[in-house]
Amino acid sequence: MDSTDSSSASYHPQLPPGFRFHPTDEELVVHYLKRKAASVPLPVTVIADVDLYKFDPWELPSKATFGEQEWYFFSPRDRKYPNGARPNRAATSGYWKATGTDKPILTSNGSQKVGVKKALVFYGGKPPKGIKTNWIMHEYRLIDSTSSNTKPPGADMGNKKGSLRVYMDMLICISL
């Protein structure tokens, strides 16, 4: 298993010494995921675009832009069926299985729901006889992207239909 923690600083020479990326759930949704979905520039480029279901979890740290024990990715949301809503979470040698219920992500004052967080665990092999591993994924999704209160700061969506990049509707945090 390769790790990128020693080389991650070389990818971001513009970041100050000692920089740490430990955003809250609200910050991830509001300042990164909403902006990415609306094609608005991100505050800093520390989250890579990766189709994470094409890789096993131990391959993902080398694909990350930044991170040591947690790695963040924007990933397309794969569908199990072309016209369905059911996600396909199969990976190369296993699958990601959802655990628990979706957790709402609220603004810091608790007045508005801005997203949803789902926890998943990686199982090696094929369901239902997969072997549980220690790899954990937190999947962050936007709520209804058509309502006006989901626009990120600085986003001018105008009357353009389909201006949200639906294929990048998830932000993923992988940890071991």
Explain what you see:
- This protein is mostly beta strands and 176 residues long.
- The chain has a single domain (19-152, 163-175), classed as Metal Binding Protein, Guanine Nucleotide Exchange Factor, Chain A (Beta Complex).
- It has helices spanning 8-11, 25-37; strands spanning 48-49, 70-75, 94-106, 113-124, 131-142, 170-175.
- The chain has a 6-stranded mixed sheet with strand order 1-2-6-5-4-3, covered by helices on one side.
- A hairpin with a 6-residue loop joins strand 4 and strand 5 (131-142).
Briefly summarize what is shown:
With 176 residues, the protein is mainly β.
The helix/strand order is HHEEEEEE
Known CATH architecture: Beta Complex
CATH superfamily label: NAC domain
The chain-level mean pLDDT equals 77
